[in-house]
User: What shape does this take?
Amino acid sequence: MERPRHLPFNGDGSRLRMGLRPLDPAEWLEVDGDLGEFLEHKRSVLGSLPGEVLAVVADPDGSVRDACQELLDALVDHLTVHHPDTHTRSGDRVAVLDDPAGVPVTPVALAGAGMHPVDAAGRLTQEDWAVQVRRRGEWVLAAASVCCPTRWVLTEKIGRSVGVVHQPVAGYPEQLEGAVDRFFDRITPTSPRWRLNWNLTDSTDLYQPGGKYRTEPVDDLDPGDVEDRIWLRVERQTLRCLPATGAVVFGIRIHQDPLRSLADRPEVLDRLARTIRSFPPGTLAHKSMGAFAPSVLEWIDRVVGTGPVGT
Assistant: This one.
């Protein structure tokens, strides 16, 4: 079994942290063997739930579309240079894997297909995309393609300021809001960043818009079932400022692994348990971990007790 690529918990969940790290532009996107699964999922939800996963604010001057086209152009440049085995440019389209139709990427091709550039951006990558622009003195979520949400609903966030978008997060106004606002004001095209966010879920669905503040226990879950029924869901988030439009683009790449993948790493499980136990009640509720945290912690204690525990 493959091991999780990212392990973002550090043993202390008592405070929110931005956890930003410099992003190597060559490593902007993560492309792996799950690309086909992600793109098929995106085609499915864009076909069945377009109003739930794709949104753009009113754009009378075309500035939001310009920002999204700049994002799309940057993605095409990056993918065809760094991932030529999976993404190939042919005229006004980019073919992904073995899809002969490809994705339209030029303004003319997009217009002909009736597709917005943020929609095309999402169809090229495993990442979801959110585009923030400066309006009326604040950063606003202006366009997004989010086919793999983790317990949030795009239609409730579109057109809102960054602060309002994150308002439900327990502790955000007191611990992070000022720092996030300053970051958005200061980020430049030459200083991209990335960070990790994580949760535990009892579902492998890529599309998980609901479930926040869940309290009901998971049916029939006992510690013996945890390793196969509870999953570590990690978001690798990237933030870049686009040089021409000044928009800040936010990429969200989902990784999911069953807790079984950590069963032979007691030091990692110990860190996870210490993080969960240090969560304030508001964070535990916001992440909906109360529904299964006792069973998870009991399982971890059993596994950790069989070998040495690291710190």
